[in-house]
Amino acid sequence: MNKKIPIPSIERLCAMYQLIELLEKNGMEKVSSTELGRHLGVNANSIRKDISYLGEIGNCRAGYSLRKLRGYLIDNLEINRKRRSCIIGLGRLGNAILEYDRLFQSGFGIVAGFDSNINKIETIQTNVPLYPANEISIIVKREKIELGMLAVPAHAATESAKRLVDGGIIGIVNFSLAVIQPHPGVFVRNIDLVGELRIVSILSMLSKENILQT
Amino acid sequence: MNKKIPIPSIERLCAMYQLIELLEKNGMEKVSSTELGRHLGVNANSIRKDISYLGEIGNCRAGYSLRKLRGYLIDNLEINRKRRSCIIGLGRLGNAILEYDRLFQSGFGIVAGFDSNINKIETIQTNVPLYPANEISIIVKREKIELGMLAVPAHAATESAKRLVDGGIIGIVNFSLAVIQPHPGVFVRNIDLVGELRIVSILSMLSKENILQT
DNA sequence: ATTTGTGAACCAATTCACAGCG
DNA sequence: CGCTGTGAATTGGTTCACAAAT
Using a CB-CB distance cutoff of 8 angstroms, which residues of chain B are in contact with residue A200? Predict the structure, then answer.
């Protein structure tokens, strides 16, 4: 790895990894930067630049070998590294995530679920062990859980995040409205459906008025 | 509105709107750029720049009036504009979204659900009318639906997106793995939980090796 | 005395354009 | 030739720093 990688490149490389798996499943062996770009909605220059952060791979005549490309992503980014995850909040969203099998297939299997409502812990049918929310720190530590998904109401998010951090988590995907205060060594990604709908809606409005950057 | 607004600014302004509602609910009336920045994990300069795209608002002594600030967001971005939405795919995630009441509170109420499995349409208990997937275009047009949420398996996503576009949708939030091909006037935002976990995981790894940009 | 609003300066990321290689 | 890899140029976004306002 020659240079520091910008975060947008990492995001694109993750999307590319997904795509590579799909193309390989379809029996393809080679792919050009142009093709990758078309699939990902990114221009070919960016694709090549992103890949170049991983070192030289391509065959100048025939494009990239999918197998090699995937190999580079694995070697450089440990992109398929398994990490144990947990879910905090077992409402509708939390339950949907709990049963989301792609997590296991991708190596991010959920090994614990938490909720402050003891009732839920006792009634939900699942193979994943469930615990009360006040045990988050202990269990995260004991079970060597590295990633947490937060699907709790906003008012509970800060406290839950704190417990995850105390337990030594390295990353949080936050579905709640609350903003998780930054903590060194803990990376947070926020997902907010309503926010996304607002953004799309505003982009549409602005594009019509032609006051949109880009 | 004086200038073109960068997309990252729009994203931050949406988060800010969320925060403003919360602060007002807590009885606050004024807020400074520093405070907003601290809550949102953004530096105060960015906050002021973002707000400045909406025109001059602040009182130099006392910061921003929350009421006025919200007003400007509404006037300039129509950030609280109501838009009818629909959900495609009524699996676990689709069902969780179907019952997500914040959508209604935020003005993005779901007015139709779709699934290719007729069984689901007949058995799911909900107030929202459900239709078979092949009626997407017709219903979107008839019900004047502007936003679509895609929660279908990857192999069905392209076809579903096409139907939404045919129906005249203006925005799609895509939870599936498939990449929705861009279409003029249709804005797409992708949400991929596994992708987010991968990103967090890679960021953590790279930060330790110090080969991360920023 | 603070806190905004904003041009200017800086930094990051994307795009260009072309050399190099099979 | 076609396609990659990459410095250079460009664009875009963030941060700085200070004038203006009260």
Answer: 147, 170-173, 187-189
- Is the pTM above the cut of 0.85? yes
How many domains does chain B divide into? 2
What range defines the domain where residue B117 resides?
85-194
Nearest Cα to Cα of residue B84 among A37, A197, A147, A64: A197
**Which bases of strand D have any atom within 7 Å of the beta carbon of a protein residue?**
2-7, 12-17, 20-22
H/E run at residue A165: helix A154-167
Closest CA to B52 of B61, B44, B41: B44
Q: Contact, A168 vs B142, CB < 8 A?
A: no
Does B106 reside within a domain?
A: yes
Å from B101 (CA) to D6 (C1')?
51
Boundary (domain end) residue, out of A75, A106, A128: A75
Q: pLDDT per residue over A46-69, tens digit each?
A: 999 999 998 767 666 788 999 999
Nearest CA in chain B to A11: B199
pLDDT, residue B211, reads: 59
Give A23's contacts in chain B (Cβ within 8 Å). none
Strands B147-150 and B130-132: unpaired
Q: How confident is the model at residue B57 (pLDDT cuts 50, 70, 90)?
A: confident
For residues A104 and A31, membership in a common domain is answered with no
- Which one of B12, B35, B201, B211 would you mutate to disrupt binding with A, by most A Cβ within 10 Å of its Cβ? B201
Same domain? For B24 and B97 the reply is: no
| Assigned domain for B199 exists | no
Instruction: Using 50 as the pLDDT threshold, list the residues of chain A that sit under it.
Output: 2
Residues of A in contact with B99 (CB under 8 A): 92
**Digit-coded pLDDT (tens) for B107-122:** 999 999 999 999 999 9
* Rounded Cα distance, B202 and B59, in Å: 43
Q: B146 and B69 share a domain?
A: no
**Sheet containing strand B110-115, strands side by side:** B130-132, B110-115, B85-88, B147-150, B171-174, B187-190
B214 close to A (CB below 8 A): yes
CA distance A33 to B185: 26
